[in-house]
């Protein structure tokens, strides 16, 4: 007779979560990615009080994978997202191509964006289009069009610009009130259609 997963119950309290987690451990199913994601998604609802428990779950997971971490980044405040990334790197677990696009949009203050930019370069994700677009958006969201323009003009070092990159720059510059700069970027766009 094989062990089967307990019937999913709605998790509304930490006590229910701990009970469900203990059942999964008892049945040997706690390391299954679907169950781990379910537990972690509950914990991400209130990161200030649940972050330590979530960090313990991730740190003791027998087969950690970036797919367990990546969905949590957008749900966490920047300070917790940075701590989660530090935990990920300490395991050691390398970020994948989904990590930076999930992590960068909520990154602030500026020094956190700069640190993530340095890590992105170090790990070789500067040529990954989605990571580059997230970096552009993060600099623009932190009101630093000069840094976004440097990244944009550099093309990420790998020629990774796409229509989203161009649109991110135009939209971000417009939001900052830099309409002339946005028009200049728009005029330089290699491909335009009715939507752009």
From TrEMBL:
Q: Is Transit peptide among the key words of this record? A: yes
Instruction: Specify the superkingdom.
Output: Eukaryota
Where is the chain membrane-spanning? Answer: none
The identity of this protein, by name, is: Pentatricopeptide repeat-containing protein
Please name the Pfam families in this protein's record. Answer: PPR_1
Keywords for this protein: Repeat, Transit peptide
Gene3D superfamilies (UniProt xref): Tetratricopeptide repeat domain
Supply the NCBIfam families for this chain. PPR (TIGR00756)
The protein's organism comes out as Panicum miliaceum
Q: Name one GO biological process term.
A: RNA modification
User: Which GO molecular function annotations are given, in alphabetical order?
Assistant: RNA binding
PPR repeat extents: 162-196
């Amino acid at each position: 007779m094989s062990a089967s997963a307990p019937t999913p119950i709605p998790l509304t309290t930490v006590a229910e979560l701990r009970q469900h987690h203990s059942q999964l451990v008892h049945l040997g199913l706690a390391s299954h990615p679907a169950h781990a994601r379910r537990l972690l998604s509950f914990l991400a609802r209130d990161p200030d009080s649940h972050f330590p428990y979530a960090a313990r779950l991730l740190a003791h997971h027998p087969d950690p994978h970036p797919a367990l971490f990546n969905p949590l980044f957008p749900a966490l405040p920047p300070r917790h997202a940075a701590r989660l990334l530090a935990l990920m790197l300490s395991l050691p677990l390398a970020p994948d191509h989904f990590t930076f696009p999930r992590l960068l949009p909520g990154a602030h203050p500026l020094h956190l964006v700069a640190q993530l930019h340095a890590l992105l370069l170090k790990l070789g994700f500067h040529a990954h289009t989605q990571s580059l677009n997230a970096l552009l958006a993060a600099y623009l969201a932190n009101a630093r069009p000069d840094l976004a323009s440097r990244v944009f003009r550099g093309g990420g070092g790998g020629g990774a610009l796409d229509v989203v990159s161009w649109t991110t720059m135009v939209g971000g510059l417009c939001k900052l009130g830099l309409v002339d700069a946005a028009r200049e970027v728009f005029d330089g766009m290699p491909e335009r259609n009715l939507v752009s």
